[in-house]
């Protein structure tokens, strides 16, 4: 209850005031009091007029002149104020009301009687009774609202204006009927509501002419979109194959026929719709939009202003067949690395870059791995060992979504023989028509090849064949051409499919010339101490391998020239002075041109140690050794002396 206070001032000795009021109804600035609510009536008793001194302890009586009713009295306090509490009765007439404050005087204090009147408007309190059919609504639903207006005595208010506000926006208004009732049907439009709770205010602004106060009521309505859902209506295979079709049957619940989007890994691939029963039916073709592996298939209903959106997702595993092409080195050779080139495509002939794979040698157990590159081609290098002959390899593709992820490849493993030059009857040059004997060895990584046929010839013409012996050695003789020139000798071993041996060749140059250079080779040399000389043996041979006897050779040793001849075995023995210093010394030689020999020059290096030279000078190794030991002993004497002193 609001408490209203009216102050009455008494004229002459009394200042009469009536204060207080209520809001909500325009009453031309008149003071308004509500019937049935407490009001404080107060008066000030003052001496000598309005601005006089307060008069305490005096009785002031209050009257309702509208109903000619005594209301009560109050005793003034030190400020001259007297007051009473008055509650207008519920049957008190509405409208203008006159209040009288009377002081009957006090002869003992020489106070004259005095009174004064004050007027105010008396209004009736009103009540708004509102009711909503349902407080949980969806967009575009209607709010069904009923309102009844009553005054403070419970009497219906006829023709009362009722206004309805939603979130401070007027939604509807109207007047009550003869029973104080009015009904509203207000649509939920998005221009005034927000999803969630919304306040609805029902306002009666009051009626000043009927002395009726205003009133209002409020309700809360919750506006939410209607829930929907998508479900799979029939069993759907989640393991599918490339290039096949899948029937999809889903159901949209809680919504009218609507568009449904179908998404693959978040990308829209098609659009369908639900029918009046909510069924969503379509055929999903596992086409080029799909790749091998796991995918997310989603169905999505976007919703609208009234219905909430919904979606459903499921995982699809897409499988397919691999089309694998394996390219191997022309022949696999034992003891060598062989390259396996792998290319893989799917059912749509699309590459599979980044696909790991392994190549396993089923015979040796050796494996190698690789990864397909951007062009869906990869290489694995396999080291081939073991036995020759047929060999199987297993290629495994590391992708669980491929059905045929293993491929068997069968091929043959060969061995690569090779011919090695051992020696020949010439050093480097042949004479015209000279028989030249060549010695080669045929072997492989498994050892010597015995009993194999080797073809040989001159100038790439294999005219003769010979067989290798128990050590894989083959010897053959070729007659050099009659004219000078540079020719080639070619030996070849042809492919042997029975032994899985590949072919090989060996060729080397054969120079032929009439004038033959001579080569002097040092066979041995030593220092003869008693004679103080160097004994050296040299072998003289032409480059066609012929040993030259009786050949005169000019030598130069320690700046001294002399001539010597070879014996029957082509050996020349020299007795040379011992050099004065250790180190290397050069023995120069030259041979003059003759009818079959060309002029040849060269040198031989002889190296001498200090021991050899001291021995030649008569000191010998023992003297030299003693000298070294003596020097060491002299160097150690100071250390030995110090140690004895310390002890």
Quickly describe the structure:
This protein is mainly beta and 647 residues long.
Describe the protein's architecture and organization:
By secondary structure, the protein is mostly beta strands. The chain folds into 6 domains: 120 residues, Sandwich (Immunoglobulin-like), CATH 2.60.40; 97 residues, Immunoglobulin-like (Sandwich); 91 residues, Immunoglobulins (Immunoglobulin-like, Sandwich), CATH 2.60.40.10; 80 residues, Immunoglobulins (Immunoglobulin-like); 95 residues, Immunoglobulin-like (Sandwich), CATH 2.60.40.10; 99 residues, Immunoglobulin-like (Sandwich), CATH 2.60.40. The chain is 5% helix and 52% strand. The chain contains 2 helices and 48 strands. The protein has a 5-stranded mixed β-sheet with strand order 3-9-8-5-6, with no helix packed on it. The protein has a 5-stranded mixed β-sheet with strand order 11-17-16-13-14, with no helix packed on it. A hairpin with a 4-residue loop joins strand 5 and strand 6. The longest helix has 27 residues. It is elongated. The chain starts with a strand and ends with a helix.
Tell me about the biggest sheet? 5 strands, mixed
| Uncertain residue segments | 1-28, 619-628, 640-647
Instruction: Walk across the major sheet and give the strand order.
Output: 3-9-8-5-6
In whole angstroms, how far apart are the ends?
127 Å
Oligomer: single chain
Specify the number of helices.
2
**Overall helicity:** under 10%
CATH class of the largest domain: Mainly Beta
Please state the overall shape, judged from the principal axes of the Cα atoms.
Answer: elongated
Work out the number of β strands: 48
Mean pLDDT: 88
CATH topology of the largest domain: Immunoglobulin-like
Structural class: mainly beta
Name the CATH superfamily assignment of the largest domain.
Answer: Immunoglobulins
């Amino acid at each position: 209850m609001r408490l209203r206070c009216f102050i009455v001032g008494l004229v002459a000795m009394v200042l009469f005031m009536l204060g207080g009021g209520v809001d909500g109804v325009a009453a031309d600035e008149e003071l308004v009091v509500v019937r049935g609510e407490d009001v404080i009536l107060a008066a000030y008793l003052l001496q000598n007029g309005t601005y006089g001194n307060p008069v305490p302890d005096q009785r002031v009586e209050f009257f309702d002149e509208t109903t000619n009713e005594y209301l009560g009295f109050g005793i003034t306090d030190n400020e001259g104020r007297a007051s009473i509490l008055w509650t207008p009765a519920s049957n008190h007439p509405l409208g203008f009301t006159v209040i009288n404050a009377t002081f009957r005087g006090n002869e003992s204090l020489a106070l004259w009687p005095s009174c004064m009147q004050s007027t105010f408007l008396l209004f009736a309190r009103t009540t708004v009774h509102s009711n909503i059919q349902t407080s949980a609504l969806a967009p575009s639903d209607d709010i069904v609202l009923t309102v009844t207006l009553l005054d403070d005595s419970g009497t219906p208010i006829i023709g009362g204006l009722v206004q309805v506000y939603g979130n401070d926006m007027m939604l509807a208004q109207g007047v009550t009927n003869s029973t104080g009732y009015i009904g509203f049907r207000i649509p939920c439009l998005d221009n005034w509501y927000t999803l969630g709770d919304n306040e609805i205010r029902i306002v009666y602004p009051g009626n000043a002419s009927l002395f009726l106060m205003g009133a209002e009521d409020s309700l809360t309505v919750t506006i939410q979109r209607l829930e929907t859902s998508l479900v799979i209506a029939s069993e759907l295979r989640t393991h599918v194959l490339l290039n096949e079709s899948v029937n999809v049957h889903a159901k949209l619940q809680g919504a009218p026929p609507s568009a449904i989007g179908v998404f693959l890994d978040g990308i829209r691939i098609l659009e369908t719709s639900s029918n009046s029963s909510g069924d969503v039916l379509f055929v999903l073709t596992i086409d080029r939009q799909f790749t091998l592996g796991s995918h997310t298939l989603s169905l999505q209903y976007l919703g609208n202003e009234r219905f909430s959106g919904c979606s459903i997702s499921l995982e699809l595993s897409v499988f397919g067949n691999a089309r694998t092409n394996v390219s191997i080195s022309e022949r696999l050779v034992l003891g060598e690395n062989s390259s396996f080139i792998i290319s893989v495509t799917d059912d749509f002939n699309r590459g599979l870059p980044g696909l790991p794979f392994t190549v396993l040698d089923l015979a040796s157990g050796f494996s190698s791995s690789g990864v397909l590159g951007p062009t869906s081609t990869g290489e694995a290098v396999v080291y081939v060992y073991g036995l020759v002959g047929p060999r199987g390899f297993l290629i495994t593709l590391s992708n669980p979504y491929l059905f045929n992820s293993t491929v068997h490849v069968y091929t043959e493993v060969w061995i690569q023989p090779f011919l090695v030059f051992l020696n020949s009857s010439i050093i480097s040059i042949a004479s015209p028509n000279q028989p030249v004997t060549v010695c080669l060895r045929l072997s492989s990584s498994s050892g010597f090849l015995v009993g194999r046929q080797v073809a040989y010839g001159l100038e790439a013409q294999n005219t003769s064949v010979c067989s290798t012996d128990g050590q894989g050695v083959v010897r053959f003789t070729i007659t050099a051409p009659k004219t000078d020139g540079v020719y080639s000798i070619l030996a070849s071993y042809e492919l042997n499919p029975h032994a899985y041996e590949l072919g090989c060749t060996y060729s080397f140059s054969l120079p032929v010339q009439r004038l033959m250079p001579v080569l002097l080779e040092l066979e041995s040399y030593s220092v003869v101490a008693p004679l103080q000389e160097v004994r050296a043996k040299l072998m003289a041979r032409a480059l066609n391998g012929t040993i030259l006897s009786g050949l005169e050779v000019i030598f130069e040793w320690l700046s001294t020239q002399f001539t010597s001849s070879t014996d029957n075995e082509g050996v020349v023995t020299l007795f040379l002075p011992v050099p004065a210093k250790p180190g290397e010394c050069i023995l120069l030689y030259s041979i003059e041109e003759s009818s079959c020999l060309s002029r040849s020059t060269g040198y031989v290096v002889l190296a001498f140690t200090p021991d050899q030279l001291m021995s030649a000078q008569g000191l010998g190794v023992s003297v030299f050794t003693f000298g070294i030991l003596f020097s060491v002993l002299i160097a150690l004497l100071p250390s030995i002396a110090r140690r004895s002193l310390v002890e």
